[in-house]
Amino acid sequence: MKSTHTIRFAAALVAASVLVPVLTSQEKDKKKDPADQAIVLSPFEISAGPSVGYSAASTLAGTRLGATVGGAKDARYFRDTVTQGGFPHPNTITAEGLFSEHDLPVPTEPPNGHLLQLSGEATTASLLTRPEVRYLGQIGLASGLDASTWHRQPLNLIAVVDKSGSMHGYRLGLVKDSLHRLQKQLGPDDQISIVLYGDRSYVHLEPMRVTAANQGAISAAIDAMETNGSTDMEEGLKVGYDLARRTRRSFAGCTRLMQFTDECPNTGNTTAEGFMGQMEEGARDGIGQTTIGIGDEFDAELATKVSAVHGANLFYFPNAQEMEKTFSEELDMLVTELAFDLDMTIHPAPGLRIAGVYGIPSDLLRWEGDRNLTFHVNTIFLSKRKGAIYVAFAPEDADLPEHVYTEGRPLATLRLSYRETGRALLTKGRLELPFVAAASASPGLQRGSYLVSEYLGLKAAMTAHVVENNRGKAYAMLSQLHQLLSTADASLEGERTLTAQLLELSAKASGHDAGPDQVAASSIILDQ
Question: How far from 281 is each of 12, 155, 193, 223, 241, CA to CA, in Å?
Fold first, then answer.
């Protein structure tokens, strides 16, 4: 029988919709939850709930919500650049953004109303660009909350909008569409305000409850926004956070800034550290931030750095359709924080070494001694998808025979601690990644093997094309990636489409015929 070590944060949903976590740890038989085996979760509908807030209700009662790490929450900027016929810079895609677009379940205990469940397993794997890797482990992030009964807290939303000249036209139009969609998603227990920055920074709409009587005034304020001036993001955030601090004292719920910008600041303090300082200070006061990137000049590197603070996440909307889909299906999730300061130390089994960690920014990784790796996750958010962090393992000594790992034997042991939402106390725990045969690996681990290879392959191909100007090398790598993804399950169809588009662009740029024979030939050349 297989075993799993599950760490669970228990939550009581009381009248004020407050989550009170409690840690437990057990070993139980590994049983695949029907919800975990589904390739795609049913779409969520935002519907009116009780007086404490509004719910994200699944069409399948009993379906569990998931959890994902904070920071970048999608790979849309990379995809949009390819769709427009361009070659994205390798720094515009992150593993955590790519993973957040997919449901990556690992078996956990049955739904039980607990806030967060961590579990894991490992299996054999081979990864593009990393030939030394033999095994891949998954740290799975899930929730025991029932999607049909969970309700978020009332939301005090401060929209901070860049109205500088670069936002003129469709960009400000997309922001207006976004705010109108948000207006429809919120209810009478929520309130919204708008701060504008450009030629000057000021409160455009004072805090207003989203009641039926106020709908007209809110809509008029949104429609009245106009572009003007340069981009002083620092001053705009200052006005926004001042308003957030003033209003949260009398608001019974959560307070969050939602910043809309094309990420092209050109006046005031334009360093990322200046903006991050304000956000970190806001986080200490219990104010989260969601950054919404708008437009084709969106600086994904800066936005990713800005989002790497407590309670911060990042989305990119290239068009109204993507915006509406995200807000319709995931608004409640993207404003709900589950835990902060999750620290993990990975201890690999004898005979193995850590070859990579994927799903968090690499600058958060630190070595502890010669073999162990530690990392820090700022925030874990509620999600309709199960999230993941992947760990790649290689033989410790390539000159010695490889160890043979039996079913259920841990390939790594993790020591961890975290701070629960709303509490200062630190909770400590332990997690193992037991070995399972590849054929019986969970959907999350099987998909993860493809997604990690996709991330590595896209980074390598775009580095070759954009940075090194080696178009042949880029084409060969994309050919291998395209072949690999052809064997993935139906949930990764979007990834096959992305790589096919990029391969076609690369074939034209490098003078290749992108037919099957050329793809195979290029793969052989790359392997050599």
Answer: 29, 20, 20, 32, 9
